[in-house]
Design a protein that fits this description.
Layout (H helix, E strand, L loop, with lengths): L4 E4 L3 H15 L4 E4 L3 E5 L11 E4 L2 H10 L7 E3 L2 H9 L4 E3 L4 H10 L6 E6 L6 H7 L4 E11 L4 H8 L3 E6 L2 H11 L5 E6 L2 H6 L7 E4 L5 H19 L1
Parallel strand pairs: 1-2, 4-5, 4-7, 5-6, 7-8, 9-10, 10-11
Antiparallel strand pairs: 3-8
């Protein structure tokens, strides 16, 4: 049975953008349900840039939240991946693009001619320990929470999708998203075909013994799409 149903649970703006890409790749027959489980809410806070030599962004949400709080674009921006770097450039930053993943970005910064101090702006929940890695390498880093990631319940349309005994493609983009989804996924009747953005996400979903889980080759949207294509093709081969 071909997987012609897709559930996307990223924050609304990212979900809509990823859905458009998936619709182009999979065609109009793909039923796509968007049901964010996190809502991004910038905090009302001041950002002190005094004495800094650079900023660290580990998500486009961090870039957008920073833009809502500060008009300063004078510092170089170290960005976790291509999408985050693109968003940073769009608002006026000189952005250095990482290859994907917090640890890889930390190693890239450590190899650059910078001595800090740097500021890592992020949400309440953050993956990886950039500050710890860079501090061990002798580069001082401050951190500041500038947005909240509020939990949001799955929609009725999402629950209906999961209740039917047919394949559902499900990209999961963070361990926290995996944790929030798990209570709805464990009793699901759907044949889950999950693309995990990292091994940590796959571990968070290990209770789903009947799900097919594929870890993306790189922690980025393009690799997640490739993973979904492979999962969909695999479901088709199983049916034949």
């Amino acid at each position: 049975m071909q997987a012609d149903r897709l559930l996307i649970t990223r924050p609304q703006a990212q979900s809509e953008r990823f859905a458009q890409t998936c619709q182009r790749v999979f065609g109009p027959q793909m039923q796509i349900v968007i049901s964010p489980v996190l809502k991004i809410v910038p905090r009302r806070t001041k950002i002190d840039l005094t004495g800094l030599t650079g900023l660290i962004f580990t998500s486009e949400n961090g870039v957008r939240a920073f833009a809502a709080l500060s008009h300063d674009r004078s510092l170089p921006a170290y960005c976790v991946g291509p999408r985050t770097a693109d968003v940073a450039r769009q608002i006026g930053f000189r952005a250095t693009q990482g290859t994907g993943g917090a640890e890889a970005l930390a190693n890239q910064i450590a190899a650059a001619p910078t001595h800090g101090p740097l500021l890592h702006v992020h949400g309440v929940t953050v993956a990886g320990d950039i500050k710890g890695v860079l501090t061990q390498r002798g580069i001082p880093v401050r951190t500041q929470v500038i947005y909240d990631q509020l939990e949001y319940p799955l929609s009725k349309a999402a629950h209906d999708l999961l209740s039917e005994p047919a394949p559902v493609l499900l990209p999961v983009f963070s361990p926290r998203t995996a944790t929030l989804l798990l209570p709805a996924l464990v009793p699901a009747r759907a044949l889950l075909q999950i693309a995990a953005i990292s091994p940590a996400v796959a571990v968070s979903l290990q209770k789903l013994h009947t799900a097919r889980i594929d870890v993306a080759a790189q922690p980025d949207g393009a690799s997640m799409l490739t993973s979904l294509i492979g999962l969909r093709d695999g479901a088709s081969r199983l049916e034949r």
